[in-house]
Amino acid sequence: MMYACRAALVAVLLTRVTTGFAEMGPPGMGGPGMSGSGPPFGPPSFLRQVFPPKLVMEHQQEIGLRPAQVDAIKQAMNDAQQRLVDIQWRLEGESEALGKLLAADHVDEGAVLAKLEQVTAIEQQVKKVNFTLLVRIKNQLDPEQQAKLRALRPSLPFGPAGGPPPPPPE
């Protein structure tokens, strides 16, 4: 049960970081909630070269994951989860402080930008921990397992690419 909770937390935080990668774009092009021209950017293409933990867990028998690989991937996930909990607490605290600075009728631009630097630095730490996990998972898989996962992976493993969502079915 504890492992399932940890795996869920890692999956949620991994989703947050990959969503962060998907929301990144060139400066001045707008972003989430910003008025910019063009559709939002999709996830970077390099994410197609790694495998989310959920995909590996869902297909562990199908790809012939060995017990030593399972143990190594579990350890990598546990390590990431422990680091992410601490980072998430810091991120939420700094985000709350940024929100309080922005709540004033007139904001101190210097203070807000300094706090924003702190928040984005922590977000970078989240991305680095999550990406490290993806690399460690990939390094545990042999080429045949990676090929099987590529074939089993949904076409958009980290979310939709840029552009509007498809229309609802009629």
Structure write-up:
The chain has 170 residues and is mostly helical. Helices cover 63% and strands 0% of the residues. The protein has a domain at 2-11 and 42-61 and 73-152. The protein has helices spanning 2-23, 53-58, 67-103, 109-140, 143-152. The radius of gyration is 19 Å and the shape is elongated. The protein starts with a helix and ends in an 18-residue tail after the last helix. 18% of the residues are buried.
At a glance:
It is built from five helices and no strands. The chain has helices at residues 2-23, 53-58, 67-103, 109-140, 143-152.
Keywords:
170 residues; mainly alpha; disordered N terminus
User: SSE order in H/E notation?
Assistant: HHHHH
- The radius of gyration is 19 Å
**Uncertain stretches of 5 or more adjacent residues:** 1-12, 21-35, 160-164
Share in helix: 55-70%
Strand content: under 5%
Look at the helices and sheets and give the structural class.
mainly alpha
* Record field, number of beta strands: 0
Largest sheet: none
Shape: elongated
Mean pLDDT over all positions: 80
What is the tally of helical segments? 5
- Please report the distance between the alpha carbons of the first and last residues: 40 Å
Topology:
Elements: H1 2-23, H2 53-58, H3 67-103, H4 109-140, H5 143-152
Helix pairs in contact: 1-3, 1-4, 3-4
